[in-house]
Amino acid sequence: MKKIIAMLLAALMIMGLCACGNSEQGSAESTHKNLSEEEMIELSEIAQTYYENAQFVEMMDAYQKLYDGGCQDASLFGFSNKSVEDALKTWEGKVARDKIVCEYVSYAIDSLREELKDPNSLVIYSIHLEEDKTATNKLSITFDYGAKNSFGGMARDSYSRTYPLSDNQLETIYNSLKEDMDARGATVSDSVAYLCGNYDLTRESMYQAMVDGTATW
User: Fold this and answer.
1) N or C, which end of the chain has less CB nearby within 10 Å?
2) Region for 78 from its dihedrals, namely left if φ exceeds 0, alpha if ψ lies in -120 to 50, beta otherwise
């Protein structure tokens, strides 16, 4: 009798474990449910808004949800000539190099603020990047900006700073532009020049996000 009871208890335990496993599997599957066409379009628009405001972390989260939701239309990722997988990888590469730009633009903004009479009045109209003439691993950043002077009026001026990039950062830039750089016979040492030629932070809303501290990378 004791043996029969023990066998029954063991069978119940096994059934319970199987039920838990199926439940966990069901939960995992439910987190990756296919999105409707309307939901996909909405996510694509949300991702683009995040991009325009230099909120790259939130943008990549939205694109990842779009990908996990079963999207097969690469145009919703902003590309019509790529597969969905390649479109997502392209964005990952773009964000990887934009993170580098954001880091040094942020340093330059902080440095500029220290020289202003009214740091809170800072407005950036454009950002120009170029490879420093003295070394291929140095990035020069120039702002066309406006800020209040000692008389309270807005004055417009330019401001430049140069920063050396690490080997890892040069490698990241190269990897994000590898296809194009390899086709032109360029190497890692050309990364800064190619970064400047493929600079994507071109919207005033992006500049302002950097100034306001709302950009995320």
Assistant:
1) N
2) left
Q: What are the tens digits of pLDDT across the range 67-89?
A: 999 999 999 999 988 999 999 99
| φ/ψ of residue 90, rounded to 5 | -65, -45
For 111, the 3-state DSSP assignment is helix
45 neighbors 78 (Cβ within 8 angstroms): no
Beta bridge partners of 72: none
Q: Give the whole-angstrom CA distance, residue 68 versus residue 32.
A: 6
In the chain, beta strands by DSSP E: 123-131, 138-148, 154-164
Angle between helices 84-113 and 56-68 (to 10 degrees): 170
pLDDT in tens, 152-172: 899 999 999 999 999 999 999
Other residues' Cβ atoms within 10 Å of the Cβ of residue 95: 19
User: Are 78 and 87 a contacting pair, CB within 8 Å?
Assistant: yes
Separation of first and last alpha carbons in the chain:
66
